[in-house]
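In the previous chapter we treated chains in isolation. Here, by contrast, the input contains two separate entities that must be folded as one system, with a combined length of 388 residues.
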Amino acid sequence: MERLKTQMAFLLELDKLKSVIRRNHLADGSRLENDAEHSWYFAMAALLLAEHAVEPIDLGRVVRMALIHDIVEIDAGDTFIYDEAAKKDQAEREERAATRLFGMLPEDQARDLLALFREFEEHKTAEARYARAIDRIAAVILNHASAGKSWRLHGVPKERIVAINERIAEGSPALWDYIRELIEDASQRGFIAG
Amino acid sequence: MERLKTQMAFLLELDKLKSVIRRNHLADGSRLENDAEHSWYFAMAALLLAEHAVEPIDLGRVVRMALIHDIVEIDAGDTFIYDEAAKKDQAEREERAATRLFGMLPEDQARDLLALFREFEEHKTAEARYARAIDRIAAVILNHASAGKSWRLHGVPKERIVAINERIAEGSPALWDYIRELIEDASQRGFIAG
């Protein structure tokens, strides 16, 4: 019963992820996306696009990574991928957050989730590389759908968009081909400022 | 490439789940929850509480159920579990929605997701029973945390809350014990109208 209470306290803390706001908009441009709904979207995309992964992957582990990858942002906040200044201390802030947040759980679960989070961050495994690719794809397709709302708002030039997203190829060359075309299309339609 | 385009069109359609609003509030009572963030929360709770399932379960299948269980609500809308009138044609509305939405996918994926959705709805397997329990638990703990905001707003009496949620025991007697105490606590604190 003590163990269950600990798990429930963590679950309640997790609700806060619904209030961590990203720089990305929904496809219809109506509002900014939050981390919890993004995590769901990422997990769904990982499920649907698994056949395009360049290496064999344990899809269950990728889905779990998607579900937990942003939990640290409850403490550390969302870091915009095009914000080089904020990215400088991102790893340190997120590591501290991971220790506190996952540390709320029973020791075995804390250890498992911390390891999974670090695996995602280090992108050294096939699962982490595919997961990273999907995380990026989710952002790009919503940016394209919303006529580049977030790209334009933050004045992100095309070269930066390509440079940040070409890492998708490490997880899936097929998906990178698709996304590169989408960025090209966005550029031609005037969805990108630079 | 045709297959990938089909998958991407479905993924874009999925973004609409972020705009389907539930009757439940966030834990802090600040706003209503949407289906996409609820689906993430459900999947996380399923992961964290798996050891309390009464039967052996394939946790990966439960997580996939959690992720897809509300997709039909893009067309069918959210049906409040305490709204008996709306529940009458719920199954019909959702089956029609499932056919259209999953039907956007390549045939093999459409078949798999439709089967998974129906398995969840029919709760005849251990996975579906555990998933149902977790779906209910997520709603109750947020209601309790928000001082019964949704229960009070809709005037749901304690007997109905117990009647609707006691099915949690089919997936996990341990979790039902916990939730029954939480409902009792909510009642004593005046979080329940009736």
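The two ends of chain A are 57 Å apart (CA to CA). The CA atoms of residues 101 and 185 of chain A lie 41 Å apart. Compare these points with the single-chain example from earlier in the chapter.
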